[in-house]
């Protein structure tokens, strides 16, 4: 499904000018919701990137849509659009998903695999799944913090799934900077508190069946934290 989705979408760095054959463009800047057209507002675009054609006076708008319907219509974007739409498609075929935010500027999703009782990385941009080493080992990214979030599954710090360097001093410096100076133990308490609030919020909104689901969600969270701590003890992929 990841591989199919990669080919279904078109990655856009700088949009081409529709008036010029093979027309390239140059970035001019970015505007907020105040410059959005009604169509862009309907597509839940929070910002619009503006580009100038290199061959003619045309100004090209590239709205960063968040509404899956708008993304489905355009079938183009970057990692944000890919993650939003790919998550919807995975849920449509029966998977539970959550959104993954890498503080070093990337997003993707994780999919819950019931048979394995675990979350699996799935990156529609790259057409890859279950290869968490791709970012650090493959791309050479200097990671710091990676957070998972979803309405049905709360909030979790999943950095340890994607790095084998978390105990190194250089990594810890980047991590503390990203977390506004918080030490590891304090950061863990913050994430636990946020997750517990998500569970309680969901509990208020649901019936008795929902209470059962919240207990299961909390148990899944605790099991995942144990797994992440154990997997981080391995020093190589």
Helical stretch tally: 8
The parts where pLDDT drops under 50 for at least 5 residues are none
Main sheet: which strands, in order across?
9-8-7-6-10-11
User: Average pLDDT across residues?
Assistant: 89
In terms of DSSP E residues, the strand content is 15-25%
Please compute the radius of gyration using only Cα atoms: 20 Å
**Secondary-structure element series:** HEEHEEHEHEEEEEEHHHH
Q: How would you describe what is shown here?
A:
With 237 residues, the chain is α+β, with helices and mostly antiparallel strands. Helix content is 39%, strand content 23%. It has 8 helices and 11 strands. The strands form 3 sheets. It has a 6-stranded antiparallel beta sheet with strand order 9-8-7-6-10-11, sandwiched between helices. A 3-stranded antiparallel beta sheet has the order 2-3-4, with no helix packed on it. A hairpin with a 5-residue loop joins β3 and β4. α3 (68-74) crosses α4 (79-92). The longest helix has 24 residues, at 208-231. The protein is globular. The two termini are 25 Å apart. The mean pLDDT is 89.
């Amino acid at each position: 499904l990841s591989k199919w989705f990669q080919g279904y979408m078109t990655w856009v760095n700088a949009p081409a000018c529709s008036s010029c054959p093979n027309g390239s463009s140059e970035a001019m800047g970015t505007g907020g919701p105040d410059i959005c057209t009604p169509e862009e507002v309907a597509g839940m675009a929070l910002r619009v990137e503006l580009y100038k054609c290199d061959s003619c006076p045309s100004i090209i708008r590239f709205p960063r849509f968040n509404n899956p319907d708008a993304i489905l219509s355009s079938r183009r974007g970057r990692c944000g659009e890919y993650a939003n739409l790919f998550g919807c498609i995975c849920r449509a075929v029966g998977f539970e998903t959550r959104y993954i935010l890498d503080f070093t500027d990337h997003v993707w999703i994780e999919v819950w695999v019931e048979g394995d009782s675990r979350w699996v990385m799935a990156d529609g941009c790259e057409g890859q799944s279950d290869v968490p080493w791709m970012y650090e080992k493959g791309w050479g990214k200097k990671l710091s913090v990676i957070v998972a979030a979803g309405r049905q599954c709360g909030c979790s710090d999943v950095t340890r799934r994607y790095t084998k360097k978390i105990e190194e001093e250089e990594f810890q410096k980047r991590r503390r900077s990203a977390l506004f100076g918080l030490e590891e133990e304090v950061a863990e308490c913050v994430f636990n508190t946020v997750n517990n609030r998500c569970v309680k919020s969901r509990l208020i909104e649901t019936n008795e069946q929902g209470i059962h689901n919240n207990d299961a969600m909390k148990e899944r969270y605790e099991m995942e934290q144990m797994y992440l701590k154990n997997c981080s003890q391995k020093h190589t992929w």
